[in-house]
UniProtKB/TrEMBL annotation:
NCBIfam families: intramemb_PrsW. It comes from Metabacillus litoralis. Pfam families: PrsW-protease. Coiled coil: none annotated. This is Protease PrsW. Involved in the degradation of specific anti-sigma factors. It is an enzyme of class 3 (hydrolase).
Length: 220
C-alpha cells in the first residue's frame, strides 16, 4: 500500500516542484499552491461519477464524442473552473508565470489522486507508464491553461476575454486529442511519442515566455 501511494504521488510532486522552482522572481505561497493541488484532487470523484453515469447510460454512441465531452471537456473545464474562481482574482496572482504555477498545481492534484486510484486497481507495475503519459500530460495541460489565463489576467478589454476563452478551450482540445490517440489507434505509441514531444515543447516554450514577460516588466 505504501509503495502504491508513493509511486502514485512521486511524479506529481516532482513535476509540481519543477514548475514551482522555475518561478525565479517571486515564489508563490506554498500553502496556496498546496490548496490548489487539493482542490484539483477533490475534482476526481465527482468527475469519475459523471463519467461513469454517461458511460452506463450510453449517452454517447460515438467514442470520439465521448472522449471529447466526458473526458477532455469535463476534466479540463472543471480544472479551469477551480483555477478561475479560486485563484484568478487572488492577490497573489500578480505575475504572468503565477498562472502556470497554479494551473499545474490544480492539474497535478487531479492527476495524482487519479493515478493513485489507478495503481490500486491495476498494480504498481504501471507506475512508470502512468508517470510518463497521464501525469505529465495533465501537468502540461495545466501549464498551457495557466499561461493563457495569465495572459488574460494582464491583458486589457476584449483581449482579456479572448485569452480566458483560449485558457480552457486549448487544454480541452489537446486533452481530447491525447485520449483519441490512446483509444483509436492500435499502434498508438507511434503517434503518442511525437504528440508528447510536441506537447512538452509547446508547454515549456509558454513557460519560458511567461518568465521573460516577468523579467521585461521588472526591467521596464
Amino acid at each position: 500500500m505504501i509503495a502504491i501511494i508513493s509511486a502514485g504521488i512521486a511524479p506529481g510532486l516532482a513535476l509540481l516542484s519543477y514548475f514551482y522552482l522555475r518561478d525565479q522572481y517571486e515564489s508563490e505561497p506554498v500553502i496556496l499552491v498546496l490548496r490548489s493541488f487539493i482542490f484539483g484532487a477533490l475534482l476526481v470523484f465527482p468527475i469519475m461519477f459523471i463519467q461513469y453515469v454517461l458511460e452506463v447510460e450510453g449517452v454517447f454512441t460515438s467514442e470520439t464524442l465521448y472522449t471529447f465531452v466526458a473526458v477532455g471537456f469535463l476534466e479540463e473545464f472543471f480544472k479551469w473552473f477551480v483555477l478561475f474562481f479560486t485563484i484568478y482574482q487572488h492577490v497573489e496572482f500578480n505575475e504572468h508565470y503565477d498562472g502556470i504555477v497554479y494551473g499545474v498545481a490544480v492539474s497535478l492534484g487531479f492527476a495524482t489522486l487519479e493515478n493513485i486510484l489507478y495503481l490500486f486497481a491495476n498494480g504498481v507495475e504501471y507506475a512508470l507508464g502512468r508517470a510518463i503519459l497521464p501525469v505529465s500530460s495533465h501537468a502540461l495541460f495545466g501549464v498551457i491553461m495557466g499561461y493563457y489565463l495569465g495572459k488574460g489576467k494582464f491583458s486589457e478589454g476584449s483581449n482579456r476575454k479572448k485569452w480566458i476563452l483560449v485558457s480552457w478551450s486549448v487544454p480541452i482540445l489537446l486533452h481530447s486529442v491525447y485520449d483519441t490517440i490512446l483509444l483509436s489507434y492500435m499502434n498508438w505509441k507511434y503517434i503518442m511519442v511525437p504528440f508528447m514531444l510536441l506537447l512538452w515543447w509547446f508547454a515549456l516554450r509558454k513557460a519560458k515566455k511567461a518568465r521573460v514577460k516577468i523579467l521585461d516588466s521588472r526591467l521596464s
